[in-house]
Amino acid sequence: MASNKDMRRADLGTMSSTMPMAAMFTRNRMIGWVAFVFSLQGWLAESPDQKKTAATPAYMSVLMSLMALVVTYFPLFLPPQAKNAPAAAMPSS
């Protein structure tokens, strides 16, 4: 006999919305990938009732986590420029 209890995790929604921000702030790639997996799980496990009552659609959290991955991998494609050291003072003769 199957249980009627909904086995979806409610905390995946919270995690999938805050982890991309943490990945962008820290530029940590591992947090970005975990955020992507959590948001993808939340999107795939979304029920029709959750779609009707949600303030934002679940695919927005997937897009946000993809943006976090872009931000974390951004320095690989456009490396930051090194700042020039100030010129040493020339001794006057």
Automatic annotation (TrEMBL):
GO function terms (MF aspect): protein folding chaperone
GO biological process, one term: protein insertion into ER membrane
Domain of life: Eukaryota
Locations listed in the record: Membrane
Residue ranges crossing the lipid bilayer per the database entry: 58-78
Main location: membrane
Keyword Transmembrane tagged: yes
Keyword entries, A-Z: Membrane, Transmembrane, Transmembrane helix
Entry GO CC: endoplasmic reticulum membrane
Coiled-coil stretches noted in the UniProt entry, renumbered to this chain: none
InterPro entries on file: ASTER
Descriptive protein name: Uncharacterized protein
Organism: Penicillium frequentans
